[in-house]
């Protein structure tokens, strides 16, 4: 049985230049690891007894593992790098073949393994726990699991059937997206929704409802999608994170996030009249 693996360097997938995009979900033959120094091999632990490491387009006996490559390692000649965010667009809701969940999970765990090589309490080198996404310190006994940071993303509508979209200063282009932000300790997700909207665009909302979630390993988030209705106050970007925001109708939309993201899913649902 040929072993196949996803090769990661941070949140980027590594592939030979001539490897077809249509086979990305199958992984690479594990023998390709010979091109790298000190590759970190690991199996992707199953979730709820469903093997996350089995490729949808491979035979049932073809098990995929993952390989984490050190950030400073140089790429072999004629290899390419694909950001995992970009791969998401290949597995949009309209695409019938494949599921990005296994790649997202593998990417998340690969990054966690690089960050968890040493115990955060005493500094000793951690040991793996067989069959689990877990590491255990041999000195002080501290357990470590992949960190998951919940963040909210909200589609906000008003009584004129428009949506509120904003441009974040961190965006590298003129894409407009939803208000989003991380959940704070001791805070409900609904409270995070109201606070982030208030802080970033000075708007109050009502009718906050959960819609859908998406793993987002950039590096360790879980995006939780909500919808909300505009209630009051004048729209005003905070100037720190958000430098522009506005209300948009279906026939007057700005540049939007790419397919495959939860942000675009929420917009597409609104365009269909489902939100």
How would you describe this protein?
- The chain is α+β, with helices and mostly antiparallel strands and 275 residues long.
- The strands form 4 sheets. Strands 1, 2, 3, 4, 5 and 6 form a 6-stranded mixed sheet that branches. The chain has a 4-stranded mixed sheet with strand order 12-10-14-13, with helices on both faces.
- Residues 49-63 and 93-97 have low confidence and may be disordered.
- It has 4 helices and 15 strands.
Structural class estimated from helices and strands: alpha+beta
Unreliable runs = 49-63, 93-97
CATH 2nd-level architecture of the largest domain:
Alpha-Beta Complex
**Number of helical stretches of at least 4 residues:** 4
- Give the total of domains: 2
Number of strands: 15
- What is the CA–CA distance across the termini? 47 Å
Nearest-integer average pLDDT: 88
Can you tell me the CATH superfamily of the largest domain? Nucleoside Triphosphate Pyrophosphohydrolase
CATH topology name of the largest domain, in short, is Nucleoside Triphosphate Pyrophosphohydrolase
Radius of gyration: 21 Å
Query: How much helix is in the residues?
Result: 10-25%
Shape: globular
What share of residues are in beta strands?
Answer: 25-35%
**Main β-sheet: number of strands, strand sense, barrel status?**
6 strands, mixed
Pattern of helices and strands: EEEEEEHHEEEEEEHEEEH
CATH class categorisation of the largest domain:
Alpha Beta
